[in-house]
Write the structure tokens for this entry.
Amino acid sequence: MHNPNRYHWCRMISFDQNENNLLELNNAMLDASHIQDGGKIAEISKSMHLCRTEIETLFNELEKLTATLEEKRTAFDDQLILIDRSE
């Protein structure tokens, strides 16, 4: 049987870890639903929400970092072209 108190580790971990945690939480939710444990369902639901929120936060940060990388890569490539032309 799953202990819903152990599902509060969704913050500050990797995307893959959050995905794995969400899968485990989903299984725990199925178990809790099967036995109609309302308290457990509520706690697992909150933990699932935290995992989803953290995944969304990580995706947003990835998008920002990817945009920054592309800007820097373009600037670097432009400088490299100028250097090549001056030689």
Notes: The chain has a mean pLDDT of 86. Residues 76 and 82 are 10 Å apart (CA to CA).
